[in-house]
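We emphasize that the prediction below concerns an isolated chain of 228 residues; any contacts that depend on oligomerization or on bound cofactors are therefore not represented. The input was used exactly as deposited, without trimming of termini.
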Amino acid sequence: MTTRTGGFSAEPFGSFNLAQHVGDRPEDVARNRASLAERLNLPEESFVWMEQTHSTNVQIIESLPDGPLADTDAIVTNVPGIALTVLVADCVPVLLWDETVGVIAAAHAGRQGARDGVVKKTVEAMQSLGAVPMQIHGLLGPAACGAEYEVPEEMAADVEKHLPGSRTLTLNKTPGLDIRQGVQRQLRDLGVVSVDIMTPCTITDERFFSYRREGLTGRHAGVIVLDD
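Result of the prediction step, given as a token string:
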């Protein structure tokens, strides 16, 4: 997982913004992405980026695409050396791997996509490549926490109906959502029992970008790559 620090972008995208669609200078984003590749000791062309739309669309990657994948919110591969990348700023970055079989995935689990089943479809795509749920490990990265993510009562009830475990109360005792908790429960129901949750709340932790806190802002990333 990256943070927002150590890059080249100016405010309000300061400074390690990795998203091209938020209004940042393209040349600054390009320098940030080059820096990310250098830090991970990977070729720049090995990264797969998504044009995320809060959908449940999952793509299995068999070879490197020419550019970002349109209308895609999860990617899966069994090809070594391909760096799957998910961009977030409050949504849950979900990284999954079955190292026994050699299958990895990265998913963008925002409120809508998680509610509609993007994580379930990601696990199913991994299974189509031979992954076994009991062998899959998961990491849920920094995201909006239930204590801060206030939503209308009707929305909280709707998401809880489709993604049980998500509904909560905020610090102000108002209806809230903790999408990470809902995703963790869903993964366990699917047989993925080894799931770690990173604790930072993007709404309050200024090391990370937060759309709810800032509005116009950048995106940090989760990256996963299968070793040769």
